[in-house]
Specification:
Shape of chain A: elongated
Radius of gyration of chain A: 19 Å
Low-confidence stretches of chain A: none
Oligomer: homodimer
Order of helices and strands of chain A: EHEHEHEHEHEEHEHEEHEEE
Largest sheet of chain A: 5 strands, parallel
Distance between the termini of chain A: 55 Å
Largest interface: A-B, 75 and 74 residues
Strand content of chain A: 15-25%
Helix content of chain A: 25-40%
Number of strands of chain A: 13
Structural class of chain A: alpha/beta
Strand order of the largest sheet of chain A: 3-2-4-1-5
Amino acid sequence: MPKIYIVGIGPGSYEQMTIKAARTLELCDVIVGYHVYTDLVMPHYPDKEYLSTPMTKEADRCRMCFEEAMKGKTVAIICSGDAGVYGMAELMLGIGRDYPDVLLETVCGVTAAVSGAALLGAPLIQDFAVISLSDRLTPWEKIEKRIRAAAQADMVICLYNPSSRARHDYLQRACDLILGFTSGETVCGIAENIGRAGESCSLHTLRELRDIPVNMFSTVFIGNSQTCIINGKMVTPRGYRL
Amino acid sequence: MPKIYIVGIGPGSYEQMTIKAARTLELCDVIVGYHVYTDLVMPHYPDKEYLSTPMTKEADRCRMCFEEAMKGKTVAIICSGDAGVYGMAELMLGIGRDYPDVLLETVCGVTAAVSGAALLGAPLIQDFAVISLSDRLTPWEKIEKRIRAAAQADMVICLYNPSSRARHDYLQRACDLILGFTSGETVCGIAENIGRAGESCSLHTLRELRDIPVNMFSTVFIGNSQTCIINGKMVTPRGYRL
């Protein structure tokens, strides 16, 4: 039976892939993905066939996988982080209805909320919300509502896709919403290029964060009212007595 | 300089560890962890020294790591999933203030929200909240507030620690809160024993979920208003046009 693996490659470095993801890519004939991600794995799997489509052509990319699988090839479609968090898993399952003979298996990866948190310290140790600021597929009003809800319930917030060329002020707008519920001194962090060249992280107050430029390779963390800095790390206490 | 690695081992199977986690455990002298987790890795690293403390003795477990490191041993403390999501990373950083000569490094793992989502389909493809129902360290009122906030903002909700012997009706209470904001037909899922013996998952309506017994090895997913079932899988559409 033709089979496609939907593989999360983690933040970017080979070492941060799961053993299962690495073994899966090894056994595949074709690796499909956005070029930024195929470029990351290609040095480790130089003998594979690689296929790609531009951004916004995600559905075409998925159909390409099924077409290759129907030719008898074993296919992996790769996503950065995990395929189930703003990744391709849903689109693959949806398009899979048109290819009932193709088996799908998702192979997990470490999503940016988790890898970025480890770089910064331990910001997500307590209840948190993961929200994407991209309004390409979600109305901005819905995003605003979710930001407000998370902030008023004092949840840590992890923001994916905090900015892009067309949405340069979205992080500012998100910060202004959150400032309606919490202190401008709230501890925040940015993780950039996690697991890749140029990996870095930085800590800021919420008031500072609103004016800091970020890009599509940044993941932003906004602490809850308890989040503090311990030895230069962003830490949300769980409540243990030490 | 003495060093301790804070390692997330993922859901449980060796293959779902990251390559970095596997290499880190290989190079350590001592592996410290709750016995359920040390039992999982022991067959793969039989020659290591293992140390443990019972549940509720987490701070003692952490101090044990620092004491071993000060003896000159390389130490790993392991958590299931990721150490930064309801794990030991925060406690280690906090206690680390008393041991300024010990270096700490967090090695990421796949947390149950991600691994459970992959088993069930793709429920977390859109904005979501991760909330623990354990009130051992968080007042129940705060947990309720967060559940309400996430539900009213139509976020997918992933519940950790949905039940225990002392808290057998907490999932029911959470479902009743969410039923105040959304349909009883909302698609929900339970992932159990992810990556371990007895791994299973099941789909339910929200109305059904409230009466289903779960345990401390269950992770519960409550869909948003768009979440649907595709070929037996729980899928939250992101909004792509197919």
